[in-house]
Amino acid sequence: MEGKGKKMNCWHCNTELIWGSDFTYEDYCIEGEGIVSTFSCPNCNAHVEVYLGDDAIGSKTPEEAMKKYTAKLKKENNKFKKEKNGRN
Length: 88
Ligand SMILES: [Zn+2]
Fold this sequence. Notes:
Blueprint: E1 18-24, E2 34-40, E3 47-53, H1 54-57, H2 62-87
Bound molecules: zinc ion.
């Protein structure tokens, strides 16, 4: 896969993060297709997870991806509420 050589720095201490591994959304019990990449910071032990979903892959800009993502979250949240109410 391309892009594996890219470097990412720690949000907290700016040390270069060490890539751990990639998981599928299935591994994380998330609906849909996507990849979860995990990184750790050797300096402050911060743990970073990057979620790349199929929605984000199809988006042209980060803003568009964010809009889609929040819309999806809202939808799932509503679904969850309805299911919760249904049980009462
Ligand atoms: Zn750090």
